[in-house]
């Protein structure tokens, strides 16, 4: 009776099912079927077909667009003309074009369509959609820099068939407009850097009625389009705009985030190592996104830089609709128009958007810094964040109770690991109703915030734009009664599915939504919220679980009857605009810098919020891609970004987690986050030695916060990235153009190369120049231009070098939070360059208010020249300067470390310190320490005790 | 191990001030125990690095000179000297190679009128008064602190009292068991005697019976075979029918499971629809459950059974119908088995019992008593009486063994958990109520309905190390009693759920916190007087303050 039976087939089958499920559980791949490829998108297919057609016809292809020379007018920096499109059946379509030459040196070209502009079209299905091409993107995105240049002028030496405009500083720039076929060339110093419609791919799909008998053209993608069970009614028919933009002599293009891809963008029309699909910009909640892909992600910035040795130029495609960009690199020899002698490659890009007007900004550089600045003048610089926001953020989906939050808070203190902000994902709400607290799990939100406030820590909570559709929920009822929601194509309140189930979406395009959204955030309406509560606006693409491509139907209607199609990519931006206003003054008279984290973004979002790379995964590959992703956002004017440390989905092992912290401290936005189904992984839970490794990494970030804040300040004034890629730091070094796995922190000369592969205990750091670079921790010297140097990277070490010639401000005393470091003294780390010189700067303010606009800040320039270290004021005095400086009277420099000092200092025992205004100098001790084995000597000035806000000199 | 040292130091600090160091004022932040290092008012020698000597004016000058931090007992200047800090060679110039050893446990805070304590250096002069650790001169704290101390003492006393009660109960229970064992031993003896007597009487009765002539049942087999044949045919047909139904159900189940496993793979967990997640979890549990010991037979076996009977397959009825010879009718079914294909034997053996009892019920065959179908009532009665006596003896023996086993089982020190066995406590946490029944089980009970989930059944009393921070901010490990519960509900793609219940001294039996440390591995922090120090007479002397 006890004989063992062979397993029946059924048992086998079940085991197989179980086994297969086990294998598939970590589901690491994106659901491709949820997102369109180019061939599934009508206008992408049409524009690519046009490119293929033109390419096949070669020289015989002529663009059917020409300027009507009789309409050309130039006045006050602006050129207007009519562009004529001749259709297949000989119809002439009028397209008014405006080219503006701006003070900043940028040029802007806008093409509209006369019939749509005048509303002389009929739209189908009785749709109420606005008849015009959407022309309000500018209103949301552009914050300044549109002043036209008074000095721009028609070039007197212009041959017929052309219009030439000289502009820019000293008329260095020239726009050459060929009338027929239409083409624009942009020159700098007589050399062509950018060509528009050079390939003849300009395409403005004019309005046409749907003819019963058809037009003879392939209308397959003109009208209704279906995808994934959703049908887009497309009441205005085909209306895309497209244009080719060529960068002659440029081999590298960067930018157009957000994609999980390398810094240097790849070709998109196939071939070894290239993509087959164009880079797509259509903000979407892409679940478990894939790497090295041109697939769209959560945010879009259609700003591209082309770079070659000694020159950077760029374009900004201002369009809020779905956009695709094809990139092809061609050998320049086949292009006789190229004027550059040494260039070999032309990069041809092809841009097209589904609707809206064609609106393009052209930047002629010549440096990457110029591009950042000019682009930033238009779309705004990154806001100077609250100081806590650049420290460490501890997040998890979810901290489950208010007691849990307090427990995590005390554990960080127990293990003496600093953090500044703890985050609550959606589960804190009562039944997913934003602006409420779950009465069971968060009975005492104020007690929790008060506890955090004891160490000046903050709370960030999730507030999303979808509002639970429920009677009795005041936010839902007000949204309905005030008519502030997005409408469906029939003009009814749009109802979709998101976290709370049935939901409606606030339409922040509606001006009336702003005061309402603001009112929801006041202390008296958002009950239980305190001054140390900040916002996380998630799902703002918007994410709609049951919508096409997990977002809204394109024929939904927003305020002004604009179709969702027209505004999709700026939807999240409008929410940010409202949330920013809401946080600015939650209580009358209490004005503070808002802090918001957004997932969806567009150009301009940098003015309002930080962002992150969305729902990544706990894999080494995701850790690796985070560096180029962060760098790309930085050069695209949106530096305040990071990736979820540890990876959102799945469980990282200890090595991966530790390495991720060591990398994460170099993200401008430094936050750990984890999915609800993962194990707890707060740093203190990790067993030794990894706990110490992680603690050291976090403390390194805190130690360098003075340098980080200074870099953020610089970014807020000049648009420069906070962390910079190799090409940006050394734009003349061609070998560095594709390097995207190491980064520079601001101007500090600190060069970090996080380890992003398993079991890797040394790394190769590329050095561009011949200065010495010192290991940050033991001062080992690395030197040698244009090559990679092996740097040890044991598990407990972040590979980090300090370039000679810099002065780095630090604060060495570890505290519980960054706010508690406020009164601590500084350490200056000095590395002298070949000439025995060094430079650095420091910016600091209250980290919270806008008082810095009234002079309440310190901004110092540190210089080491001829054996003298000086601190000079870079600030401009304002009404609050004196008062602020008084509060900093006791904040001093406690230590100056000079790495690799002149050997003659060996016998030096003291240096002389002279503070401004002091009658006599004082003498303080200098100690010289020798090192062996390729490690540099160093000297320490002990307690110069000079005021950080004062001018002084130290004579060595 | 830094712990014992600093604990010791604190104990001394707590007792009374030291006379020797009273004359020279101690620098700020120095405790009486370290005062001796700060006597020399001209030169200070770093405590752990005596090679480094600095002028005494450099003590507490807010600059860190000593590689062990000992020159800054009253400031945060040396707070960066910590394993958690990213130290470069220049932070401990000339000593960067040496192991980092801190000389001082922290900033010494007198807490005037109360228990002194050390504050981590990183908190000195950070602008926040650390009420919990140190707040000299704060009247508010003084009152709260005093109350706390008093309450603590009170709770401690109460806890100890309860523990003693528990020990009493435990001791009584143990004694009770010993008493019972003694009683049962006597009963066993009685029962053994009884069995012996009954065996004897059975033997006697059987002897008498042998003399009675048995009646013969000729020709019965042939008739029976006829009936059985018809019956078997009927059963065969039903089997075929049931088999078809089974195959259809199996097909549907398979289809359903395929749908579900596809659903499990393809659903988007990021959308966090509770209904969907619950369904997926249930599916996971379902799929993870071991399939109940299969009682199925292979299709080949069934095919074999389903074949019509004849010479080559099944039963050769003809042979049986013509059989004249009588035999023990009830063995018929077993004999049938001998003619079946060998692969079917197991199955048939299993089913035989039921078929046989069916036949018995319908009166086709006589009920069997195991030895003889035609026993007299007297024999049966005697046999039954003997069997009853044997059973009762076995029961008693089992009971006795159980009790004896129980005595040797680990019930903790002085058997204290005997008193808590099956005491259940529970705690609400968010969506669930967690339940702990001492030495029995742990459970998770959803508040929003649905069945409760076993987080483990009691396995053993063990121990675990817990990290705590001493007054100086050092992480130390402490050994605690832990009740281990294992083999709870199975987890999808993981182990069976298990729980480690970590016990702390407290006045009440109470769950403080439940956490899922790893997938399906839980820890529960529970207070109980049972682990409070002291109370066990022999250990009373060495009791230490652990509350």
TrEMBL record, chain A:
GO terms for cellular component: glucosidase II complex. InterPro entries: DUF5110, Gal_mutarotase_sf_dom, GH, Glyco_hydro_31_AS, Glyco_hydro_31_C, Glyco_hydro_31_N_dom, Glyco_hydro_31_TIM, Glyco_hydro_b. Pathway: Glycan metabolism; N-glycan metabolism. It is an enzyme of class 3 (hydrolase). Pfam families: DUF5110 (PF17137), Gal_mutarotas_2 (PF13802), Glyco_hydro_31_2nd (PF01055), Glyco_hydro_31_3rd (PF21365). It is found in: Endoplasmic reticulum. Residues 212-238 are annotated as: Disordered. Residues 1-22 form the signal peptide. Gene3D superfamilies: Glycosidases, glycosyl hydrolase (family 31), Golgi alpha-mannosidase II. Residues 827-866 form the DUF5110 domain. This is alpha-glucosidase. It catalyses: Hydrolysis of terminal, non-reducing (1->4)-linked alpha-D-glucose residues with release of alpha-D-glucose. Residues 719-808 form the Glycosyl hydrolase family 31 C-terminal domain. GO terms for biological process: carbohydrate metabolic process; N-glycan processing. GO terms for molecular function: alpha-1,4-glucosidase activity; carbohydrate binding. Residues 383-711 form the Glycoside hydrolase family 31 TIM barrel domain. Belongs to the glycosyl hydrolase 31 family. Transmembrane segments: none annotated.
UniProtKB/TrEMBL annotation, chain B:
PROSITE patterns: MRH (PS51914). Residues 422-534 form the MRH domain. Residues 1-19 form the signal peptide. GO terms for biological process: N-glycan processing. GO terms for cellular component: glucosidase II complex. The keyword Transferase does not apply. It holds the Pfam family PRKCSH_1. InterPro entries: Gtb1-like, Man6P_isomerase_rcpt-bd_dom_sf, MRH_dom, PRKCSH, PRKCSH_N. Keywords: Coiled coil, Disulfide bond, Endoplasmic reticulum, Signal. Residues 167-208, 232-266, 379-406 form a coiled coil. The keyword Repressor does not apply. PANTHER family: GLUCOSIDASE 2 SUBUNIT BETA (PTHR12630:SF1), N-LINKED OLIGOSACCHARIDE PROCESSING (PTHR12630). This is Glucosidase 2 subunit beta.
